[in-house]
Amino acid sequence: MEHVGESKNPLHENDPVTELYGRTKHGGIIFRIMDAGGPTDDREDYVDDAVAEINRSKSLCFKANMTDPTDPSYRQYLEQLFLRKLDDVTILTPFYCDMGIRVRLGSRVFINDNVHLIAGGGIEIQDGVLIAPRVCIATVNHDVNDRHRFFTYHKVVIRKNVWICTNATICPGVTIGENSIVAAGAVVTRDVPGNVMVGGNPAAIIRRIGQDRSSSGRKLQ
Fold it and tell me: What is the pLDDT of residues 171-182, one digit of tens each?
């Protein structure tokens, strides 16, 4: 099966994490396919690299989640997960991430408990983002016609100073603009512009932040 060409802007371009791709069993081919949106075929040998990363990530999350949350040593497992120091990031456990090397975290990020990151397609969380309990950020889709074999991937970008409230779901391919707020329980299926509050399923603009409410209920484009 032919795959989409390699992305010109992979998630970790010029980042030390990228070097790890080349040291995997199959040279990180699957991560380049993910950067390009897929599809991947679970019958191919290159899937072994993704399985290895999933197992590594889930094991580290398990260790962090089984450590007393008042014991700061739990952070060492999350630092191994993301391959970076977390002095400028707060993550409360329990926490779940299936591919730590596919996540980029900015500074002053706060992630509350029971957050799930399904990260194959890449997740970028920029500076100052707040994520409330039980938020799910997903970047992977099953193929509609052959959902047990093929998968597609779309990066999620959460821009600076975004606040994502409890039980929200961010779907694959979404970008949330700077300073915006995602209301509790929202299901975000399309890009969100900056400086707005969105809510509902599917999410729509409730109002603009710092302005009047004349744009309430406007659909996302």
Answer: 999 999 999 999
